[in-house]
Amino acid sequence: MKINKPKHDVNPDLAKERLKCNFNIEEVTNIIDGGKDKTVQRKKIEDIALNNGASLDEVPEECLSIKERYENAVRKSCVYGNLVRNEMLEITGIENFESPVLRRTADAFFKDISPFMLHLGMFVPTLIGQCTPEQTAEWLPKALDMQIIGAYAQTELGHGTFIRGLETTATYNPEKEEFVLHSPTITSYKWWAGGLGKTANHCVVMAQLYTQGKCHGTHLFIVKIRDLDTHMPLPGITVGEIGPRMGFSSADNGFLRFDHFRIPRENMLMKHAKVEKDGVYVKSAKHGKLTYGTMVFIRVTLVSEMSFNISKAATIAIRYSAVRRQTELRPNEPEPQILDYPTQQHKLFICIATAHAFQLTSCWLWNTFQAVLADMKKGNVDTLPELHALSSCLKAVSTSDALSHIEQCRFACGGHGYMLSSNLPFIYSFVAATRTYEGDYTVLLLQTARFLVKASEQAEAGKKLTQTVSYLNRTANADRLNWDNTHEGIIKSFQVIAAGKIGQCVKSIRDRTASGMDYEDAWLMTTVQLVGAAEAHCRAVLLNTYWSEMRKITEASSADVKKVMHQLAVLYLMYWALEKTGDLLKYSSVSKKDLDELQRRYEELLAELRPNAVGLVDAFDLRDEILHSSLGSYDGRVYERLIEEAHKSPLNDEPVNQSFHKYTKPLMLGKL
Ligand SMILES: CC/C=C\C/C=C\C/C=C\CCCC(=O)SCCNC(=O)CCNC(=O)[C@H](O)C(C)(C)COP(=O)(O)OP(=O)(O)OC[C@H]1O[C@@H](n2cnc3c(N)ncnc32)[C@H](O)[C@@H]1OP(=O)(O)O
Ligand SMILES: Cc1cc2nc3c(=O)[nH]c(=O)nc-3n(C[C@H](O)[C@H](O)[C@H](O)COP(=O)(O)OP(=O)(O)OC[C@H]3O[C@@H](n4cnc5c(N)ncnc54)[C@H](O)[C@@H]3O)c2cc1C
């Protein structure tokens, strides 16, 4: 398999690394893609994107002004959107418009974010999940064909987390058969929605629904905010961009204020509840939170997105570490490649393992999500709470872990990792946002904790629990687990840690209520522990899922691939066991000797993986055009690229900057 056909000679150290690799790289790529046919499909889509010169920037996007950057991003988004519409969807099938490959290939066009990302990312999924069949027929074809461009406007200046606290109102007027949208306070300004500021002409709006004098809580509406021809905001709409941010610089995150803005009754998204012409409110949903469906969907997809982002950072840092040499080990010996340092391996190999752990877990989560959707189609919503608990904690932990691993990758690249041309700062700032958006880390873990506390009480009452918490049935009465230094033993110990922490939370809440606190205060006082318990549960799910899915997926693999995939999964188990030694000591009989043995095995495993490190990141098969990194390209021309990128800085356009004559020289001459 030709991965990237380098135009230049490959750096000799990197070339030697590739000779060391002892497994079939293509086989691992196929595993990551989900099959050989999927690899072929991905490559076809990438070819379409990359054979189009429009993805190239003459000036790096980070060197442009805010306006130029946005305009350039819109230009490229239109080209890319057109390719998706006319060529790529033919390959994936239109029903797979959410294929991660389409999202990822877009990275060939943008180091930062496309202003259109939220259109396909959230607007279209909301139409699919929240419309009646008639509404779907009206809106979806236009959205998929990009005749209308949409955003998802839920968060307000005053509230993001607490959706029930949103202030925008949608008041029904039966005489005119219209809703009147209004922003009654400054805190009710819609705030943050991606693509809303300048790009979108429509948006989905979450607002408090009033009809017949009664508030029925938050509901979704589709709202046209700009004229389709002139793109001017419609009367009653104030819309704009919220200002520079840590990342998402070309995503025109926006604000929106309604001044008694009228929309037809049919623009309420009515799949789960409707308002009749006469104003009667009718709820058809069997579960109170179905309007939150788009958020659940995105939380599910983010786990795979985190795998992708870690694999990008790991590829950059590992290729760079094979090229970079630093510090004599012994006098007069050549400086070693920094990849030879076990401390460097400790920073980086866990990133490769985590990318696999998240990818396999995300496929399993996606299948769970599809099964729940199928249940809901039949009118059964019983499986939704478990999906909500699972998607909440996996979103929280995967985004948080991805962020810290990506930061480690930057540390691993020393000073050069701080350069925007390395792409690590872009990857980091993108992932930093994911920890917050679509539900903040703490808030989502507390949602999972709610589910776990209930599950623990059910286990106590002898009830049989659902799959992801069934370990509580087995471990509810276990005090301390007998340590068993096997892979299954490590997984079981994480389940016992989770069960122990959940049990301790239940006890703390009970003790507090028994001493006179009301339940809400007892819960609040216990939230630090509850977040820890939900994280522990999530770790148990991740370890168990990664291990069992890895074994399944490599059943038919070659012996060498089986071996290296197995080594990565073991590394993941050991890494987390060593990270959580305090918990292991508390909840199992593990001894200092056992932990020393685990540490020794972990260090040996780093050394065993070392020859395959470059092969393993090559297997992610990230083309240079998608990686955008001076440090991580396939040919390893790190220093040449750093110099080429330096020359692109606008400050190097002329030998002397005018500020010298205007300010510095007068200062030097005492004439200022
Ligand atoms: C491919 C991916 C790549 C890119 C993706 C594309 C674009 C990405 C770019 C940017 C996207 C950014 C978009 C956004 O950020 S949109 C805004 C997202 N906002 C949030 O996520 C807000 C977070 N807050 C909440 O979700 C909720 O308010 C809450 C914290 C969950 C609390 O809700 P509330 O109504 O107050 O409910 P509670 O009273 O706490 O709970 C009652 C009951 O309901 C259950 N519940 C809550 N949520 C759900 C749900 N979604 N599904 C099912 N059940 C739910 C909850 O557990 C509780 O159950 P009980 O049985 O315990 O009563
Ligand atoms: C880059 C980016 C893009 C975004 N895109 C969109 C978009 O397209 N559409 C959209 O609608 N929104 C969007 N958002 C908004 C995003 O969804 C919210 O910012 C997010 O849900 C967090 O809400 P918040 O900002 O209100 O934080 P807050 O809830 O104010 O959180 C602040 C702190 O308070 C803590 N906290 C809050 N509530 C609790 C609680 N109950 N218990 C314990 N701690 C708590 C949190 O843990 C956090 O530490 C985007 C945000 C970002 C950063």
UniProtKB/TrEMBL annotation:
Its cofactor is FAD. Keywords: FAD, Fatty acid metabolism, Flavoprotein, Lipid metabolism, Oxidoreductase, Peroxisome. Its main location: other. Transmembrane segments: none annotated. Residues 24-149 form the Acyl-coenzyme A oxidase N-terminal domain. It is found in: Peroxisome. Gene3D superfamilies: Acyl-CoA dehydrogenase/oxidase, N-terminal domain, Butyryl-CoA Dehydrogenase, subunit A, domain 2, Butyryl-CoA Dehydrogenase, subunit A, domain 3. InterPro entries: ACOX_C_alpha1 (IPR055060), Acyl-CoA_ox_N (IPR029320), Acyl-CoA_Oxase/DH_mid-dom_sf (IPR046373), Acyl-CoA_oxidase (IPR012258), Acyl-CoA_oxidase_C (IPR002655), AcylCo_DH-like_C (IPR036250), AcylCoA_DH/ox_N_sf (IPR037069), AcylCoA_DH/oxidase_NM_dom_sf (IPR009100). Residues 292-453 form the Acyl-CoA oxidase C-alpha1 domain. The keyword Flavoprotein applies. It comes from the Eukaryota. Residues 488-668 form the Acyl-CoA oxidase C-terminal domain. FAD binds at residues 155, 194. One of its GO terms (biological process) is lipid homeostasis. Belongs to the acyl-CoA oxidase family. This is Acyl-coenzyme A oxidase. The gene is jg18692.
